[in-house]
Amino acid sequence: MTTTLPAAPPPAAPTPGRPPVENPLLDGARPGGARTFGTEVLAVLGRRLRRLRRGPGRAIGVVLNPLVSMVLLGYLFRDAITLPAGGSYVEYVFAGGAVQVGLACVGPTAVSMAMDLQGGIIDRFRSLPISRSAVPLGHTGADFLVALAALAVTTGAGQLLGWRSHTGPLPTLAGFALVAVFTYVMLWLGVLLATTLRSIETISVVAPFIVVVLPFLSSAFLSPQSMPGAIRPIAEWNPVSAVIAACRDLWGNPATTSPGFVGEHPLIVVAVTLSVLFAVCLALSLRRFRKP
User: Fold this and answer.
1) Which tens digits make up the pLDDT trace of 23-36?
2) Which of 204, 87, 104 is nearest to 154 (CA)?
3) Taking phi first (over 0 means left), then psi (-120 to 50 degrees means alpha), and beta for anything else, what does residue 42 get?
4) Contacting residues for 251 by C-beta, under 8 A, at least 6 apart
5) Which burial class, exposed, middle or buried, applies to 87 when counting CB atoms under 10 A from its CB (0-12, 13-18, 19+)?
6) Distance between CA atoms of 151 and 168, rounded to whole angstroms?
7) pTM for this structure?
8) According to DSSP H, which parts of 162-199 are helical?
9) How far apart are CA 228 and CA 16, in angstroms?
10) Where are the beta strands (DSSP E) in the chain?
11) How far apart (Å, rounded) are the C-alpha atoms in residues 219 and 261?
12) Distance from first CA to last CA of the chain, Å, rounded?
């Protein structure tokens, strides 16, 4: 006697005109959509914060870099350095110190990601049914919280040294929001360095160049007009100078006016530069991170 089993129903045809939507951020995630993806990001974020709590050296470095610059330059040399347009040098240098928080985050993020790539933990993550993008998003989320705490400490130190905002609450908050956006973009630059170089030794050489050299090749601590002729165009077109100039305008602090489009429209330059840099870093980082 032969028993015939009923045939399985055919798969449902996709709705005409509505192809399935693919989200590269959810690549490799378990079924469950955004809720599962958010849980995975928070798990990686918590792991990163626990590691920072056990070894806070990198987080302390993010705080010390801008503080040292502000104290050495803004306080010790406040009477020795004169601005071309006049004004308080402490208020002038504060924007440079605030932006330096974001630059100081590049190295720790890159080193942390490189350590995970070398230590095999990333291979373990790849073997699990989780989103590949949850790992760098968790790293940058945790480091962003550390950066906000460092920015708060830097702001408190600036208040003690004599920095003040003269434009009201909304422009002041807008200036700090701009620093926060710049910082998050720098975190993804650190992820890109880690996924590209994958060597802690090489990253340790490149990171000090970003946190030390870039501010001094900008308007962070000195006016570009006072720099040598060969360095002046670099300082004027440095994207860091545009971020600093926009913050000074929002806070009503002394500024240096540079001729040309960059000096006259810093907010436009900042919006275009940060958008392009974030898109490039995000796309390349996620693409290289998914590769073994």
Assistant:
1) 444 454 444 556 67
2) 104
3) alpha
4) 91, 94, 95, 165, 166, 167, 171, 172, 175
5) middle
6) 19
7) 0.83
8) 169-197
9) 65
10) none
11) 16
12) 54
